[in-house]
Amino acid sequence: MAFGGYGTFVSAEDYVSGTDAQAAEDRGELTPMPAERLSGLGARLHGEAATAGQTEVARALTYVFGEGRCPSCDTVFSVAQEVEKQWD
C-alpha cells in the first residue's frame, strides 16, 4: 500500500521500478472509508488529527481504515487488517 508522492494505491509489485505504464498496471484501487463511517480507533485517530489541524494525516487515516483491491487477483481487503498482519 502506498501513500505519498506516487499517489495512493495498492501495488502487487515494486511500484517505483519499471516503466510508468507497467507500474500503472501493477496498481490497484485504494478506497478511503468516509470519515463519518469511521468507528473505534479509526474514528478516534481521525478526530484527534482533525482537531489538531492535521488535515493530511486525517485524510490518510481514511485510507488506512478503508479498503484495497489487489491488482493481481482483484480481491478486496481491509487495509487496516493487512497492516495489522504485517506487525504480528
Helix content: 40-55%
- On the 0 to 100 scale, the average pLDDT is 86
Number of helices: 4
N-to-C SSE string, H for helix and E for strand: EEHEEHHEEH
> Which stretches are poorly predicted, pLDDT < 50 over at least 5 residues?
none
Largest sheet, strands/sense/barrel = 3 strands, antiparallel
Could you tell me the radius of gyration in angstroms? 14 Å
**Overall number of strands:** 6
The rough form would be described as globular
Widest sheet, order of strands? 1-2-3
Distance between the termini: 17 Å
Q: How would you classify the helix and strand content by structural class?
A: alpha+beta
Residue fraction in strands: 15-25%
Q: Top keywords for this entry?
A:
88 residues, alpha+beta, three-stranded antiparallel β-sheet, 6 strands
Description:
The radius of gyration is 14 Å and the shape is globular. The protein is built from four helices and six strands. The longest helix is centred in the middle third of the chain and has 12 residues. It is α+β, with helices and mostly antiparallel strands and 88 residues long. The protein has a three-stranded antiparallel β-sheet with strand order 1-2-3.
